[in-house]
Amino acid sequence: QNYFRMYRKLSGMTGTAITEAGELWEIYKLDVVEIPTNRPLLRDDKQDFIYKTTREKYNAVIEDVVQLVAQGRPVLVGTTSVEISELLGRMLQMRKIKHNILNAKLHKREADVVAEAGNPGIVTIATNMAGRGTDIKLSDEVKASGGLAIIGTERHDSRRVDRQLRGRAGRQGDVGSSQFYVALDDNLM
User: Fold this and answer.
1) Is the pLDDT of residue 131 over 60?
2) Residue 129 has what pLDDT?
3) CA count, 13 A, side-chain hemisphere, 40
4) Whole-angstrom Cα distance, residue 26 to residue 144?
5) Quick check: 189 pLDDT over 80?
6) Which of 34, 101, 127, 170 has its CA 20 to 30 A from that of 148?
7) 3-state helix/strand/coil string of the chain
8) b/e for 140-155, b at 16 or more Cβ within 10 A?
9) Residue 120 in contact with residue 145, Cβ under 8 Å?
10) Contact at 8 Å (CB) between 171 and 37?
11) Beta bridge partners of 175
12) What average pLDDT does this structure show over 87-108?
């Protein structure tokens, strides 16, 4: 914040600033202006699935991934930690579902993983920071099968982080979907 205050003029663009409008005004005296998308949003943002336990939640996530892969849809699974990304990776491995993990451990492969993430049946597990701000390109085949499916493994403390994950799908008028999974014992872990 102190670094940005050294500039006489500030501006920027992001798809998620509206949730932080109060903070941007309070800190920088910057207004947030919402600009409509240039194409209609076709993403299907589904209501959260709520489970009693984290174990039930992760089992449901894996079942959903298996079904989406069978439909030929690429899947981006968003996690809040390296440990969760690796746990879900092991669960998918047991189901023999090919997947890639972006969790800040494979810097050299990140561009390749993101480039592959929009292909039919590809599963990418990513922590909140990995792959953020990148467009996942979709083929016509993937668009016809329903587009990129986003799965959030829990709700983040910041709505903006959830919106950034959700915003990976349905870009530039593409079809897609988003689904968040939460467990009643999430905050107890």
Assistant:
1) no
2) 64
3) 3
4) 44
5) no
6) 34
7) CCCHHHCCCCCCCCCCHHHHHHHHHHHHCCCCCCCCCCCCCEEEECCCEEECCHHHHHHHHHHHHHHHHHCCCCEEEEECCHHHHHHHHHHHHHCCCCEEEECCCCHHHHHHHHHHCCCCCCEEEEECCCCCCCCCCCCHHHHHHCCEEEEECCCCCCHHHHHHHHCCCCHHHCEEEEEEEEECCHHHC
8) eebbebbbbbbbbbbe
9) yes
10) no
11) 42
12) 87
Amino acid identity at 170: G
Q: Is 164 exposed, middle or buried (0-12, 13-18, 19+ CB in 10 A)?
A: buried
With pLDDT > 90 as the criterion, what percentage of the chain qualifies? 47
More confident residue, 42 or 72: 72
Amino acid letter, 35: I
Predicted local confidence at residue 130, as pLDDT: 52
Q: What is the CA radius of gyration of the chain?
A: 17
What is the rounded CA–CA span in Å between residue 151 and residue 128? 12
Closest CA to 103 of 122, 85, 91: 85
**Longest pairwise C-alpha distance within the chain:** 55
Selection from 121, 147, 151, 142 nearest residue 46 by Cα: 151
Say what the pLDDT of residue 188 is. 58
